[in-house]
Write a structure and sequence with these properties.
This protein has one domain: Metallo-dependent phosphatases (Purple Acid Phosphatase, chain A, domain 2). It is α/β, with parallel strands linked by helices. The strands form 2 sheets. A 5-stranded mixed β-sheet has the order 4-3-2-1-9. Strands 5-6-7-8 form a 4-stranded mixed β-sheet, covered by helices on one side.
Length: 176
């Protein structure tokens, strides 16, 4: 049993195929939402086994009818609600074992959808978050802030990423 994280799948969201980065480049390689959805379902299921746990850090689907895609995904799923997770709790409860606003793992890793304010994150080893798609949280010098780690699909190869990989990246960024 392994632990994985992912965010911002935006299953069913037609405009997700048109997301652009700061340079104006498309951030998702698909021309249609159907192709995007199928590729991400395949990548998820190739990565996650039935007994694995996946924390989805928000922005799961748009529109509501795309919630049905979640039944095709392997693993036990826990949702950290995002700003686009606007449907009734009961709609999500059919597909997620638990639904939260945030989660603290091992007493030192904060999982959230939107990156938390730095003053709040300072007491943690890292804030693992979504929301930024192609961006990163930067420090005062303009470098990636080692307190933040984004797990948007654009940062994870459009598949859930293993917790061990995230921890290794956090340790490397912090120099520990």
């Amino acid at each position: 049993m392994s632990l994985f994280l992912i965010s911002d799948t935006h299953f069913g969201h037609v405009k997700a195929c048109q997301f652009l980065d700061a340079q104006g480049n498309r951030t998702r390689p698909w021309d249609t939402v159907e192709a995007m959805d199928e590729a991400m379902v395949e990548a998820w299921n190739a990565t996650v086994c039935a007994k694995d746990t996946v924390y989805h850090l928000g922005d799961v689907v748009i529109p509501r009818k795309s919630l049905q895609i979640l039944s095709r995904l392997n693993g036990r799923k826990i949702l950290i609600r995002g700003n686009h997770d606007i449907y009734k709790l009961a709609d999500y409860a059919q597909h997620f074992e638990d639904i939260r606003g945030a989660h603290v793992r091992e007493g030192k890793y904060l999982f959230s959808h939107i990156p938390c304010h730095r003053d709040s994150v300072m007491r943690y080893a890292a804030n693992i978050h979504g929301h930024l798609h192609s961006g990163l949280v930067l420090d005062a010098s303009g470098n990636p802030d080692p307190l933040y780690h984004c797990v948007c699909v654009e940062h994870t190869g459009f598949a859930p990423i293993a917790w061990e990989v995230i921890r290794e990246r956090i340790d490397a960024a912090r120099g520990t």
